[in-house]
Amino acid sequence: MKYIQSYLAIILFVFVSCTGTAGTKKTEASTMRQVLNGKILIGCAVNVNQTNGEDSVGSAIIAAQYNSITPENCMKSEVIHPEENRYDFIASDAYVDYGMNHGMFIIGHCLVWHSQLAPWFCVDKDGKNVSPEVLKQRLKTHIETIVGRYKGRIKGWDVVNEAFNDDGTYRQSKFYQILGEEFIPLAFQYAHEADPDAELYYNDYSMVGAQKRDSVISMVRKLKARGIRIDGIGMQMHSTMEDPNLSGVEKSIEAFASTGCKVMITEFDMSVLPNPFAGTNASVANRFAYTEKTDPFSKGLPDSVSTAWNKRMNDFFLLFLKHADVISRVTMWGLADSDSWRNDWPIRGRTDYPLLFDRSHQSKAIVDSIISEAKKVSVVKR
Ligand code: XIL
């Protein structure tokens, strides 16, 4: 069965490569990857089924349309380093092989994050926080081992993910409790030592709010002042039809670029569903109860909503193309609507429509718009 799937995947990939029509409804001659080549990297977060060949259709569309990949879950510490003396590289090796086979700019995600954190990482056998020295050693070993394994193949790392609260204060993660703000420079330093050629990034959500934005900028400037390598700032952009607003995004792009870092849109998706946050903290830990009212499009998306979604998406892509001198990459957080984590966050079991490809793997109108807009721009990198 596996062989048949692989065989089908190869046929599909060859077909896609030759015709460039994967996932596009019309006979569009180009793919996003082709027209954005040399302008902005266009990325996709991939799941294990896409990189191990189980989802051969999805895997072929990703290879045709995208030239960068981010691992949706398989490199988070709870997966890749579940026990102190045990690593599990099965999924991450397949991920990197897939990226190499398809000429992708491969991203590693993520080295230091309080969420999906391996339970052993910051505590001793009695569950008490370890000492700063022990945590430093664990961080160093974790980072050295993983970055070292993929040295030269993973080109950019999300080194630290989500270290700040929306009010700009440091998040009280175990890393912060034990090492204070120094955990950030340490992590960047260890990553740099493990692969001196890799790009290193800081990544976070709600990056349009002034307080978080300013704290990130000041942290980045401090790293640079100390001569510690940081190449990029990632704005996740798990969006809704209301948030964030375009002008706020533009302001943050400009502010982050003023540090000399590349700016990246790292986890873009846009939900059409009612947003329960209403100004509260959009952390992955926040969840709300399901009611039918919160899931209005379970039987399909009305044309009016789809049109509004495509229009807002297009506005965002025009903004990214306008700032392509400083934006190095735009990564979608998944391929098709059925793959998206937004179906389950912040409310489980809804039917959402946040990505560029629908549940039948057909491209939405936005894909053709991106292709025609990208053809028009010429980009000179800053
Ligand atoms: C999400 C994945 O998409 C889900 O499958 C998983 O259950 C939770 O994490 N910020 C990040 C990403 O940096 O790694 C998260 O990915 C989404 C929020």
Task: Give the CATH superfamily.
Answer: Glycosidases
The name of the CATH topology is TIM Barrel
Low-confidence stretches: 1-28
Distance between the termini: 49 Å
The DSSP helix count reads 13
Gross morphology: globular
**CATH class bucket:** Alpha Beta
Give the H and E element order.
HHEHHEHHEHEHHEHEEHEHEH
How many beta-strand segments?
Answer: 9
Strand arrangement across the biggest beta sheet? 1-2-3-4-5-6-8-9
Helix/strand-derived class? alpha/beta
Largest sheet: 8 strands, parallel, barrel
* Total domain units: 1
- What is the correct CATH architecture? Alpha-Beta Barrel
Compute the CA-based radius of gyration.
20 Å
Tell me the fraction of residues in β-strands, as a range.
5-15%
Ligands and ions found: (3S,4R)-3-hydroxy-2-oxopiperidin-4-yl beta-D-xylopyranoside
Round the mean pLDDT to the nearest integer and report it: 93
